[in-house]
Every structure is written in C-alpha cells, then in structure tokens.
Amino acid sequence: MTKSAANAQDVESATGSSVEEIGDKILGAIWEHRLPPGTKLVEEKLAAVFGVSRTKIRLALARLSHDGILTIEPNRGTFVSSPTVEQARQVFDARRLLEPALMRELCNTGVRREQLQRLRKNIALETESRTRNDRRTTIRLSGEFHVLLAELGQNAYVGRYMRELCSLTCLVIALYDAPGTPACPHHEHVAIVDALEARDADTACALMLEHLGHVENTLRLEMPADAEVDFAALFA
Ligand SMILES: [Zn+2]
Question: Residues 31, 67: contact at Cβ < 8 Å?
C-alpha cells in the first residue's frame, strides 16, 4: 500500500463506518422491513450515504450475501434475498432443531441473573413498541430476543447460525406475513424466560417448539410469493 493510500484509509476509518458497522446497519434495516425482499442495493449510492469507499460497501454486501441475506446476481447487482416457500420452511425446520436444544443447554448450565434481566428488558422494550404500534421495531426486537438467547449459549457457531436464521425469518415474515399479525406471540417470550429461570428444561423446550409453530402458522406459506396470477381463471 502506498503512503497516500494508507493515509486515505486512515482518514476514512476515522470518519466513515467500518465494514462491520455498515453490515449491521443494512441488516438492521432489513430486520425492520425498511429494505424489503427484492430491493436492489447500489454500491455507489450506499458509498455516498455511508461516506466510505465502494470497496468497503462491497465487502459489507459480500458478507451479507455469504449469509444468504443478500443475493448477488451476476450483471444485475445485489438484492435483498427473497426466500422461497421451501426455503422459508427450511428456516423454521432448522430453528426447530437448534432452539429447543439451546433451551436444554441453557437450563442445564443455568442462566445468570443479569442475563435474565437482559432478556426481560428486551421483552419490556417489545411491549413498549407494540403499544406504540411500531411494527418495525416490534419485529426487530422479537427477532433479537432469539439471538440474545443464542448468545447466552456460549457456542459461537450456534450464535452465528441463529443470527443468520433470524435474519432470514425477518425476510420470510416480510414476504409471507398475513396482514395484521404481529411477529412473535408476545406472552410466549415471557413464558420461555420463566422456564429458563426455573431451569425447567422440558417446559422450556416444549414452549420453544410451540412458539416456533405459532410464528410459522401466522405466515401464509401455502401460497408461493411469486405465484403467477392466472388471469384467465381470475376473470372467467
Ligand atoms: Zn419469538
């Protein structure tokens, strides 16, 4: 690297966001449904908005596409992914494998008081945003509840997979949500934390499975999002 290039990079890292911060901001916008599935992400525009080089934007986008959150289409650009019905079902199947096991592990190892407080704080914030009718924040917080749980598990891989699966779940909700249904059924998070606090593994596992079933059932996965309208049948 030449001296001037190094200097330029120093200046940039002092004023602009890091690759990680940019990725987190884009992810946050996806979680809040501000960037719906199918949205094209243009490097130049993002570089201007974040005040960084296109290289940094490209790195941030590459990371998210590696996790399946974004899809890079050759010669077309980078888009927010649109999971198919089959992929949506697989996301829930994967969560059904991971999350009950995680509950069992947390009950066995025990969750510290400050960790329980963190979970309950997330629930309180969610209640607040629900009362305000702030649907975007509610969806983000209810997803974050599950990521928080995974992060308590001390297994970095599980934490990473859960973050990825929760991001995909947000996209699935954006695509297949029946109008007016509010993310995770709220009181169920409270019951899950209560079971963790009581270290009741069987109840915690059962509640988590039931909860994931409820979330999946609020979605309209019977109809593919990209189903072609049969105009002949429609207007016959
Ligand atoms: Zn939930």
Answer: no
